[in-house]
């Protein structure tokens, strides 16, 4: 039997617990921002923590799409960003979990960005 891929995630303070729980149910390692720093920690601090811990940041706000996160300092940030209604997040995540795992494997250590919206999914490697 093949060994299952275990990914490491950091869920931002605004991510519903149901999304983190869905990642855990899929066999992945999840740390929640609220467990390691102040819930209102600035986005750059959260991004830096994710990069240093080699975790994929899961966020629900569009702040991480801002120009400041396209600077060299954040070049290694991998992120899954949601822009669908919160009550749909965990369900949509479960639907695309195989695609997320495949994308991480194909990226082979390079940063990825996956956006899960109400009616589309986008992937950038």
UniProtKB/TrEMBL annotation:
Domain DUF5615: 9-71
Name this polypeptide is given: DUF5615 domain-containing protein
């Amino acid at each position: 039997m093949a060994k299952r891929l275990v990914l490491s995630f950091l869920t931002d303070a605004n991510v519903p617990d149901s999304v983190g729980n869905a990642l855990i149910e899929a066999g992945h390692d999840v740390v929640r921002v609220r467990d390691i720093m102040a819930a209102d920690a600035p986005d750059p601090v959260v991004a830096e923590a994710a990069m240093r811990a080699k975790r994929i940041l899961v966020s629900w706000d569009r702040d991480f799409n801002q120009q400041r996160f396209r600077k060299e300092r954040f070049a290694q940030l991998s992120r899954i960003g949601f822009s669908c209604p919160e009550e749909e997040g965990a369900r949509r995540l479960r639907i695309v979990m195989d695609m997320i795992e495949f994308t991480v494997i194909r990226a082979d250590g390079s940063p990825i960005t996956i956006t899960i919206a109400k009616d589309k999914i986008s992937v950038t490697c």
